[in-house]
Amino acid sequence: MPPSVLFVRDSVNHQNKVLEVDGSNQLSVKDAISQSSLSNIDSACSNISADQATATNQSTANGSLATIATASGSQATAANQATANSSLGTLATASADQATAAHQLTVQGKLDTINSTLGGTLTVSSSAPARSSGSIASAASKSAGDLSSSIDGNAHRKCAIFGSCSSNSGSVKIHISHDNANFYEDNHAQYYANYSNGHIAGHFDLNARYFKVEFMDTATYTLEYAMID
Q1: How many CA atoms lie within 13 A of 210 on its CB side?
Q2: Phi first, then psi: what are they for 113, rounded to 5°?
Q3: Is the whole-model pTM more than 0.70?
Q4: Fewest CB atoms within 10 A around its CB: which of 6, 186, 205, 218?
Q5: In the chain, which residue ranges form alpha helices assigned H by DSSP?
Q6: What is the pLDDT of residues 103-139, one digit of tens each?
């Protein structure tokens, strides 16, 4: 089979020409303009690479590296170490100064002052508590339900009543008030006569200012009170 032949058009002479390849089947291209540009680029790249490796440029780079090495080494010279040691010594001295004998004496003096302030004799007041007392009934005949006069318990905290009743079954009850006008029975404060001798006694807190005594049986009563602050 005969080989195929490929023709191309000559754009200058307007003639058909056979397209040829070399022994390696590579198309032979001849473009003077392109080859000239490629040649210039190749030459420029070669010059740049060579320039970067000249002895002069290498010397410049070596000098810069030496400068950096000198600056780094300067940080560890004996003179700089001595300066650093001196600064650390100053700090150590300042810290040690906080524990000098003079400072310890100052602290000790303050502790002595505190000790002296806390020392001494504790003074305790020996004054007697305020008391008040009086009579509620003295051999008085009372009917069941009678009330005594009101008693002002101001400035006192506790009250005791005591006396006797002619009826062995007699008793008394406390009424309290904060305004000396409205009185109320205190059902927790009712005291009974002793069956054998008729004695009556009891005590209560003065949470309200005023109080009265109600005689619960018809009998003869002798009754007193005593208050304490």
Answers
A1: 13
A2: -65, -45
A3: no
A4: 6
A5: 32-52, 55-74, 78-97, 101-118
A6: 677 877 777 777 676 666 666 666 788 899 999 999 9
